[in-house]
Write a structure and sequence with these properties.
Helix content: 25-40%
Structural class: alpha+beta
Distance between the termini: 13 Å
Strand content: 15-25%
Strand order of the largest sheet: 1-2-3
Amino acid sequence: MKEWEIIADRLSKAGWSWGCVSAVDSEGRTIWIVDARRDDGRRFVVRADEKLTAFLELESAIGKIALTLSVGGWQSRARVKSVGRLPKELHLALFPQG
């Protein structure tokens, strides 16, 4: 199983619906667009040059909003400019299946 598929599986198990599409920009480069949404109205859309990078950004954005919610705050939208993984402890708390 590819790493992006593992992230997608974790998102699904956490109650998120997601989609992924590739497109070619005006300069001929392939871009990846990944989105995730929930019935409560939360939605995230991420664009990146690589599929895995897009899924990592999406997971990061969802992790940040979940962390904000868990400490009593609320953000309706999240914009993530940096790419990175969640700390292992937070990742396990948000996605206990793996």
